[in-house]
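Project channel, design review

CF: Before we commit to the Sphingobacterium alkalisoli constructs, I'd like one complete example in the thread so the newer folks can see what an input/output pair looks like. Taking Methyltransferase domain-containing protein.
RD: sounds good, go ahead.
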Amino acid sequence: MPDFSKRSYDRELLDDPLMPFEQIKQTMRELNIINTWLGGHRVTVKGLRELLNGKRQISICEIGCGGGDNLAVLHGWCQQHGIEATFTGIDINPHSIAFAKEVYGELGIEFVCSDYRANALSTKPDIFFNSLFCHHFTENELIDMLKWMRINSRIGFFINDLHRHPVAYYSIKWLTKLLSKSSLVKNDAPLSVRRGFKKAEWIKLFDSAGLPLASPRWEWAFRHLIVCKNGWI
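CF: and here is what came back for Methyltransferase domain-containing protein:
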């Protein structure tokens, strides 16, 4: 049985730059289904709503956007609620960006293939966010990311990521074993849980980054939502 008191640092297959495009495409499709049925998209919308604070015009940028499904959901939500929004997605994996453009390009979302730190933004977006992205990094890398999002956003940022817990681990392990057609998803989904953070670890990370932190909130299913408003500083 894995030791859930400590993070795993095993590398996910999705982080392999040589992963074939067809496997990436299948993974992106299945991640969208997982985010839809297990509440991941709901948590992302909740994070946006908290930072909007009544604003009717907004610019939103996702780092580590993967296949673009999070941005597509926010695009639809903003249209439904009469919010004028521009969207940018940044991801270092060219296969993910190619998939995002293929599936969601007609929505007018700008997808950029780049390391988020190397991307020169012409203007600061109002809001940065990421979903299922932070657990791919070491603690030191993540501290740098928190500082970067704080400095480069006008309003603030939010994070939607996994809570490391045995129930989450075994649930997704068996669900993907039964339902997934992707060997990559079957490997990475449970490993992602083992790479996730617990509440106390998030608090320590934000403290190390010198940022204020509203207490990480547990969301269904086994997610943490963390919202950081620049006005708190």
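RD: helpful, thanks. The mean pLDDT is 95.
CF: The chain has eight helices and seven strands.
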